[in-house]
Structure formats: C-alpha cells, structure tokens
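S1.2 Input.
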Amino acid sequence: MSSNNFRISFLIFLFFVLAATIVGRLFYIQIIKHDEYKKLADSQHIRKSKLLAKRGTISFSDGQIPLAENKGTRKVYIATREIEDPESTSKILANLLEMDEKEVFEKVSNKEDPWVFLKEIPATEGEKIKNIKGVHFEMNFEREYPQREMASHVVGFCNKENKGQYGLEEYYQNNLRGKDGFREGVVDAKGREIFSSFNKIQDPIDGDNLVLTLDYNIQFFIEGKLEESVKKYGADGGTIIVSDPKTGEILAMASRGPSNKPKFDPNEFPKFEMEDYKNPAISIPFEPGSIFKPITMAGALEEGVVAPDTTYIDKGEVRIGSHIIRNADLKSHGEKTMTEVLELSLNTGAVFVEEKLGREKFIEYVKKFGFGKKTGIDLAGEVPGSISNILYPKSKEKKIEYANASFGQGIAVTPIQIVAAFSAIANQGKMVRPHVVKKIIHPDKTEEEIQPETLCQVISPQTAFYLTAMMVSVVKRGYGKKAGVDGYLIAGKTGTAQVPDIKRGGYFPDRTIHSFVGFAPAFDPEFLIFLKLDNPHGVRFSSDSLAPVFHDIAQYLFSYLGIPPNK
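S1.3 Output.
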C-alpha cells in the first residue's frame, strides 16, 4: 500500500472514531442524562414553588367546636394574565379584603409581573375570594388543637411535615391532607419572572373536614370523672368510653395516665414519649377478668346448654389437674343459678358454663364476639389483643387455659373490643362496627354521611334478651348495685382482674385492673359505658371503685339525652 493510501485510510478511520465519539457523547447527554440536564436547565430558567393545600379541620358532633384546625396565614396572589376585567375584579377584591381599591387595581392591572402579591390573611379566611378567577393562595400554617388535652388520644397529632400521626390525624391522613398544587414561572437572566406560555399554575385541593360522633359535653364530663377517679385511687391510669350500641357511634372516649404525669397535649407532642401517644382504648390490651363472664354465658345460652335458672353446686373452688380455681371472695355458695353466677361473679360458675359449652364452641363464640382481631374502628394504632392461650394451649392439662379464659384470665383484650362485644348483647345480638367520624365534608361542600355498619348476628335476639335480664339482675341484686339509678333498668357487669407478670410469669400479688361495663335503658339502650382503672389503691373490687362512677355518668346521660324513666 502506498503511503498516500495509508494516510487517507487513517484519516477516514480517525474521522469515524471522532464521529462515533461525538454521537456517543450526544446520546449520553440527550438520552441517558436527559432528565438531569433538563433539571439543571430548568433550575436556571424556571422557578417552581409548591402551593400547600389547607389541611381539613376536625370538630365535635355539632360541627362547630373544633378539635383540630389551622393557625397561621395564607398569602393572596394574583395571576395577572388570568384577569379579564381588572376594574371589576379590583372592586370585588378591595371590598372583600378591606383594601384600597386604587392600590388593588394597580397590582391587578400590572401586566409586567405575572404573579403579584396582594395581601396576607389568616389561614381560616379566604373562602369568599377563592373562586374569583386569577386569585391564588400560598399557605403558611401550623396545626393547632384548641381543646389541648381533651380527646387528645382520639385526634392524634400532625407533625411539621403535615403528616398525621396516631388517631384520626393518621387514619384520615389522605382525606385531611388534600393535594398540594404548584406554580412554575419562567425567569429572565436576572431572576425576574416574565410572561411565558410555559408558565403554569395548579391550585391545591384543600383537605376534607371531619365531623365526629364525639359529643363535646359528654366528652368533657367523662374526662372530669376519669381525672377524679384516677386521683382518688392513685391509679396508674384509666379509660372511659361511651357509645351508642345500636349504631357503633363513639360518643366519648378518654384515657388518662397517672395523675402525677402530664396529660398528652398534641400542641406540644415533641415533649412527650412514644408511649404517651398511644390510645389505651384501642392500643393497650389487658386481661378483662369477670366482665368476660357474660361472653362465656352468651355462648352457652345460645347453644341451649344452660338457661338463666340452670343450677350447679358451688363448692368455692374447682380442681383442674394440679391447678385450683377459687372464687374471688374465697367462699362457697352452695346451689346457685346462672343468673346468680353473674350476680355474685363466681369463677367456679364460669368454669361450669364453659365445660357445658365445650372447648370448640367456647372458642367459636369468643371469636364471634370479635376477640383476637381488630374491630376496624377508624383510628390508627388499633391492636387485635390475643386469645392464643385458648387457640394454642401450652399446659399438659389443656383444660386449665379454657377454664381460666371463661372468667377472663389468660387472654388479652382491648377496651374497644369489650365495647363492641357488649354492644352486640345490647343490640339484640347484632354487632356493629365502632366509629368516631359521623360525616366527611369535602372541599366542594358536599357531605358524606358515615352509615352504621352491621358486621354479623353474634347471638339471637332471644339470647340477648335473657342475658340482658341477667345483667339487670347484677345491678339490682348483685355486685353492680352501686351502678343503679332510680327509675331506670340498667344492665351491667363488674370486673376485677389480676395483672400478669410478663417477665417472671404468673401474676403480681398486689396489682389489679378494675373494670365495669353496662348499658341503659336495658331493653332499649341509648348508651353503653365502659370504665377501667389500672392498679387502683385502697379499694379491692370494681363494685366499690367503678360502679359508683358508672352511676354518676349514667345519671348525667339520662338527663342530658332526655331519657325518661322506664321502671
């Protein structure tokens, strides 16, 4: 090959290498790194800002008293290119915003600036002008809880990133949050925004407002009674729930820690520990003790293995293998009916009923009443409790787990599960899902009513009637006497449970949980009340600690709800 031909071939090869390099570089920049370079270019020529949506409010059942709202401001801006009639628009805005009309007109008709600031107003205002064409908002707000500690575990809180945590704020995050908008504007070399066909404005969509089933006056009253009870007995905490057993509406829900510990205030959530955020009514299980006996009795009545007047001989104790189960009063009572088993809260009677029912049927009814699974209440943080002791018994004498569970020992339930289960007894055997939101109000003012949801028929109306009559007898003649209110039939059950020692096994010798659950008027109930005190001091049984508190709350509700006497 001549030297000239070699030089030509080399130049051609060099040309193709150079061309391939250029094409490869262009491919890398324009295809592979397209998004990165576009963002870089946009950052130099386009200014983008987020337009925050206004978070929805949360209010009590009257729709007027707020539990959660927004404080702060929102800035009113005008997109001047969208204004079709500057003069009339200026008059309207000046009037509604209480501004000088001439000043407003100068800003609205300023065609050199596509985005003009008009005025800063409170975050709660602006409804009258938001639909005026060309008017836009930039939100600058913080979440505020004007009732402070009241119903704080129900509402939860919203963090600085506008994300709901716990309670309603978390469960309804997508509803309350709304959808943020944005504004993109082309800027010149000096960073000044200019008119361009690339300018874009997407207004935010405000969040939904929630109206709760919680009644402010009932909530205020039970929080006072809970505070009083925790302080009186030096308890480690407590819970009170008031509900409508026919609809599942929660009329009030309050929880409290020790009286020497500050109550949870969502306005100051960073000052509290994670445990303080939890709602004990749905998130902290406990062994229910004797308030579980009506559940065992319900299954046996439904299956026809016992009747209210069925008798057994109470010897004061029952031996199961190497274990001995005794009555709480350590006494034997001789021949007793099933109604008297509930009146006197006899552990041996509950074991008798469970054995009559049989293990498989006992488990079936425990599940039917909703234990071991979540109720589905519309609050974040609910836990299912545990019935694993009867599902997977560990002892050699497997009968002991079932016997203990018959009177509420060895299983863990939540207060809201007890409320749902006893609501089924009160509601002719029909279980309804508990809920705390009554209606959702959308930004366009349309309303979405939350309808009661029936989950299942747990027991027959006849069984519910018999069991209700037996629970009425508990309040008339049994340990629930102090819960009674003259002129009214009240169905109720006391509970005093030992506290399990998780680390060492067994139970603490000096710690108990007191509970009481009841509904009234017994055969056509308008409310159900659940009460719990954690480790009260100076009082042995819930018949003395909580039955009187039930009386006070029931008496208040009869008057407040206008329920006439039914005796």
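S1.4 Remarks. Confidence is low (pLDDT under 50) at residues 40-45.
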